[in-house]
Amino acid sequence: MKLTDQIIKNLDIRGVIFDVDGLLFDTEAMYIKAWVPVGESMGVPITAEVARSTVGHSAKATEAIFQEHYGMDFTLERSIPLVRQWITDYVAAHGLEVKPGVRELTALLRTLSIPMAIGSSNIQRNVQMYLEEAKLASYFDTIVTADLVERAKPAPDIFLKAAENLGLAPAQCLVFEDSPIGVEAAHMAGCNVIVVPDLLPPCELTHSRVLQVLPSLKEAPSLFIS
Fold first, then answer.
1. Would you call 14 exposed, middle or buried from its count of C-beta atoms within 10 A (0-12, 13-18, 19+)?
2. Domains (range + CATH), the chain
3. Within the chain, what is the greatest distance between any pair of CA atoms?
4. CA-CA distance, 222 to 117, in Å (whole number)?
5. Catalytic residue among 5, 12, 19, 178
6. Those residues with Cβ within 8 angstroms of residue 41's Cβ, 6 or more apart along the chain or in another chain
7. Rounded to two decimals, what is the model's pTM?
8. For residues 226 and 203, is the Cβ–Cβ distance under 8 A?
9. Is-catalytic flag, 5?
10. What tens digit of pLDDT does each residue of 87-133 get?
């Protein structure tokens, strides 16, 4: 389906919810890069391939993936502080790369008085840091992260809470996601979904759950203007 501004109006879209990692910021690749040196510092031979398999997963699911490959002694309680420090140092040294089209789309939505929310599998502390670093925090009316709900993606809780905080029904929200797991969560919540793939290409099931696949957020403004 090729979306137009008229279709968006017919869907009664009144709010927009954004994922963060891989959608607003080029951080998925950064996390994959972090796990290799962090593993070395822990004496664990973490590969980029295994790290990539955790993309889009909650902390609990990520820990299970690493334990499957590296044993039950592997815990996020020990490793995540090291990853966070690596990320903090990396961002301080190299900056945070905002994905193409993000600034233009958020500025347009603000001009149109369309409320915006964050719905992320990351934790609030990290998301807040990213948004403040990119000077985007003021654009969002609510931020819902995995540590603020009972179940993370692919459960729908994050998107249900984001819609509730916006004072909207899920069907009145348009979600921008980059990963199949995020798409599943938004679909289960009853939101309308557009996928902008990052590291993982959309599968057939993902295609069936979204309104459209966009190459980047640069193409998104045309959905909201005549």
1. middle
2. 5-26+97-223 (3.40.50.1000), 28-94 (1.10.150)
3. 56
4. 20
5. 19
6. 82
7. 0.88
8. no
9. no
10. 889 888 988 999 999 999 999 999 999 999 999 988 898 899 999 99
